[in-house]
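WP5 quarterly update. Target: DUF630 domain-containing protein. Source organism: Vitis vinifera. Length: 53 aa.
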Amino acid sequence: MGCTQSKIENEEIVTRCKERKQFMKDAVTARNAFAAAHSAYAMSLKNTGRGPQ
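Structure tokens (predicted):
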């Protein structure tokens, strides 16, 4: 019962699933960073337009 169960980490399917999970986490992090940067850019454009008045 012990030996074969501990080898599950070496299975290709398990490894692939863990890689996909990490890719999804990275994608969410990148999306959040992009959204924050886009929001900051839009705010800077809004503030720049108000300046000369």
